[in-house]
Amino acid sequence: MAKREGVKRVLITSIGGGKIEKKDGEKVLKDYEDTTYIIRKENGDFYTETTSCMPIVIKNAYDIDKTIIIGTTGSMWDNLYEKYLENLKLEEQKDEEYKKSLIDVEIASNKTMSLDKINLEKFNETFKDKVKGIVIKYGVNPKEIFRNFDLIIKIQEEFNEEEEYEVYLDITHSFRSNAFWMFLVMTYFTDVSNKNIKIAGITYGMYEAKSENITPIVILKPFLEILNWIKGASELKQYGNSYYILENLKNNNNIPKEIKTELEIFSNTMNMNYIGALIESIDRLKNLKEQINEISGPAKHIVPEVLMNFIEDFDLKEDDNIKRIYLLQATLAKWHCEQRRYAMAAINISEAIVTFVLLALDTNSKKLKGKFDPDNDGQKWLKEVYRIYSDNPDLTDEEKQILKYGEIYVETVRIRKDVAHSLGKQVNINEDIKKLENYSNEIVSLLRKPEIIKEFEERLKILENLKSKNSTEKLTIESKENTNKEIKKNMVSEKIVGKKILVISTRALDKNEIDELNVNWGFKKQNIIFLDAEETIKWKKAKQEEDFKYFKNKINMNLKEGDYILLHGDYFRIAKIKGYAGTYKIKSLIICDRFSPEDEYFKGI
């Protein structure tokens, strides 16, 4: 792949020491030997160059913008100094005294030498943004290894937040342990760093494969691919996510297109918790078993096993589709708990147990489709069971068992609400997690016992009592609605006329919403105060007390006791301004979702 415009290329390499011999009783540095290197360029052509400084070959072949070199006090910094002066056409800056000081340190170097004995500041100043040297210890004990990690990880400071980088890693020279350092650098860049860095290649000058005085530089890109397969398989196994595999290996043909498509669908359904779509995806994966087992390349050792495990775990072999749905939800709850995704576990447990109860009570299909109503018969039944038995210390074994159904529902719904509204307290976290772990271990077996639900319905007549209660409540509600309409009519005619309303919202009101303020609520157009574009942005970003002070002042300047504010935004901002407005007896409305044409756009809070 040719170098793209605007992308900076960085080579990170390490360098070994020169050959030292004794001459007239003194240690001296041998002359560096030139080697002819050959490397395949991105366009397929071969590039050759004869030099004693192998990093320069990679620089020239791959159009490297900056080279970062890791070495010890004993590395051949003098040779690098001379060769890069020549390569960058900076010979006039050559300092013979400085070069001699590098040679002296190299000859005297040993594992105990202090890093400050070598002066790399001048080296780095000479080459500025083109070459940077980093000196590390020999790494002979854990203390030195961790010290080296501190030094090497600072390489990230060479990359800024704005630009895009392609990094090449070279593992040819220096200690064998330096290959591990390169691996750690690569892992840090790909898994930890937030900077826009891509590992473009790994190179190794294979001197042992030298032939006719030519040393090949081997491209180890397959190692990157294998590492990506392993990381992708880990994400797929732990979280059901195939995104890493699909993104990093999108140009890889080892996985057939239909399997790639199904992998993405499977991951999307897992993360959205769309149970019906997940069942369909599992069925399609089952039909692709033959193709999955024929996957080639490194993927054949990784992907088939993970996918087969998912199919085995989630293919429940239930003929009744509704049973299959709630049993899959229960199975997913256990899987989510094992992956520490506790909120998803709570969602699946509470939904599964309600569907199970509705089915056990022979609720007709129309009502079953409405199981997501905020207060359907299944939910009411479970809450009533919990109310009847939760405070009774003298329960039979059967009563304890039926109480478990009510407890699981009530507790998982509470946890769901705490998560959804960010209400959970630190002191409850471990206790709630323990409950979810226990519930997820019990839920599948509980959902295979519809007889106990029927038995206790016969005994308690909960549904029958609910029907009677619902009829009475319906008449009461209709009466209250008529009364509320009359009250609202009076309120509009007597109280809101002449009042102002300040709209503090993250978005503009549409025509229907403005009409409702005019007609239904009685606010005259000249009394509706909107934020301008700049203020809307300020409201969206409000976090600090100083931000909220602006809107408090706006309330003070425009409203008085009895006026209104209309709020839209996140819970924290709304609560902050509502509380302030309330101290001045200014009433608050919020923009709410409409589920039918009869619903209103606004309600008081």
Question: What this model shows, in words?
Answer:
- 54% of the residues lie in helices and 13% in strands.
- With 605 residues, it is an alpha/beta fold.
- The strands form 3 sheets. An 8-stranded mixed sheet has the order 5-4-10-9-8-1-6-7, with helices on both faces. It has a 5-stranded mixed sheet with strand order 12-11-13-14-15, with helices on one face. It has a two-stranded antiparallel sheet with strand order 2-3.
- Helix 2 (77-87) packs antiparallel against helix 3, helix 14 packs parallel to helix 18 and helix 16 (377-389) crosses helix 17 (397-420).
- The protein is extended.
- It starts with 6 loop residues before the first strand and ends with a strand.
- 28% of the residues are buried.
What's a quick, concise take on this entry?
By secondary structure, the protein is an alpha/beta fold.
Secondary structure layout plus pairing:
Elements: E1 7-14, E2 20-23, E3 26-29, E4 35-40, E5 46-51, H1 54-62, E6 66-71, H2 77-87, H3 96-108, H4 121-127, E7 131-135, H5 142-152, E8 164-170, H6 177-191, E9 197-205, E10 214-219, H7 221-239, H8 243-248, H9 257-272, H10 275-287, H11 289-293, H12 303-314, H13 321-338, H14 342-360, H15 365-369, H16 377-389, H17 397-420, H18 426-446, H19 450-460, H20 462-496, E11 501-504, H21 511-519, E12 528-530, H22 533-541, H23 545-558, E13 564-567, H24 571-583, E14 587-591, E15 602-604
Parallel strand pairs: 1-6, 1-8, 4-10, 6-7, 8-9, 11-12, 11-13, 13-14
Antiparallel strand pairs: 2-3, 4-5, 9-10, 14-15
